[in-house]
Specification:
CATH topology: Alpha-D-Glucose-1,6-Bisphosphate, Chain A, domain 4
Number of strands: 7
Shape: globular
CATH superfamily: START domain
Number of helices: 6
Largest sheet: 7 strands, antiparallel
Structural class: alpha+beta
Helix content: 25-40%
Strand content: 35-45%
Oligomer: single chain
Distance between the termini: 25 Å
Number of domains: 1
Order of helices and strands: EHHEEEEEEHHHH
Strand order of the largest sheet: 1-7-6-5-4-3-2
C-alpha cells in the first residue's frame, strides 16, 4: 500500500531538518513507537504497538535510516514482526524537507506491506485513513517540539499511544462517508 502525505509546518527547513536528524527525539513523535537501541550506521531497533479494534499488535524489528544533509532528503527501510500474531510489516519511506515560501513542507512517501492477521483484519481504505490520522498526530508533535522554549520542554513532548477503538471507529466512519461521497458524485 502506498501512502503519500504532505505536512506543512511554520518553521524554517533548517529547524525541521535538525529535528529529523535527531532520530531519538523524532521517534517520540511517532504514535505507538519506541526506539530501543542505536545499532550504529543508521540502524535502529524498536517496536511499534497499536490496538485496532479487537486486535493488539506489537511489531518488533529494525530500520535503517539514510539521510542527505545537502538535499534534506532521506529514507527509512524497516521490517518488523508481531510477536503475538505472527504478522509481518515491511516499510520503505522516503521523505523530503523543503522551503515552501514562509515555512517548511515535509513530503512523506511510504510503501507499506502487511501480511498475516493484520493484513486480513484491515481494509486498505481503513488503513489509509488510520495512517492519515497518525501522520496528523506526528505533524502536531513536530510542530509542538519546534515551538518548545527549551530542549527539556521539547523532549517532554511526545505522541500518545495509538488509541485503538476510537481511532478504528473514527477511521471506519471517515471511510464509509468517503464511499457515499464518491457514490453520489458518479
Amino acid at each position: 500500500m502506498k501512502i503519500t502525505e504532505v505536512i506543512e509546518v511554520d518553521r524554517t527547513p533548517g529547524q525541521v531538518w535538525e529535528l529529523f536528524c535527531n532520530v531519538q527525539e523524532l521517534s517520540l513523535c511517532l504514535p505507538g513507537a519506541q526506539l530501543n537501541e542505536d545499532r550504529g550506521d543508521g540502524t535502529y531497533a524498536g517496536n511499534v504497538s497499536a490496538k485496532l479494534g479487537p486486535m493488539s499488535t506489537d511489531f518488533v524489528g529494525e530500520c535503517t535510516i539514510v539521510s542527505d544533509n545537502e538535499t534534506m532528503t532521506g529514507s527509512v527501510k524497516g521490517k518488523g514482526t508481531d510477536r503475538s500474531g505472527g504478522s509481518v510489516g515491511l516499510v520503505q519511506v522516503d521523505y523530503a524537507v523543503e522551503d515552501n515560501g514562509g515555512g517548511t513542507r515535509i513530503t512523506i512517501d511510504a510503501d507499506v506491506t502487511l501480511s498475516g492477521a493484520v493484513a486480513q483484519f484491515g481494509r486498505t481504505a481503513i488503513i489509509q485513513e488510520m495512517s492519515t490520522r497518525l501522520i496528523t498526530e506526528f505533524a502536531e508533535c513536530i510542530e509542538a517540539k519546534l515551538e518548545a522554549e527549551s530542549p527539556e520542554e521539547a523532549h517532554a513532548i511526545q505522541a500518545g499511544e495509538v488509541k485503538g477503538v476510537s481511532l478504528f471507529f473514527s477511521s471506519l466512519w471517515a471511510t464509509i462517508k468517503s464511499w457515499f461521497k464518491r457514490g453520489g458524485s458518479e
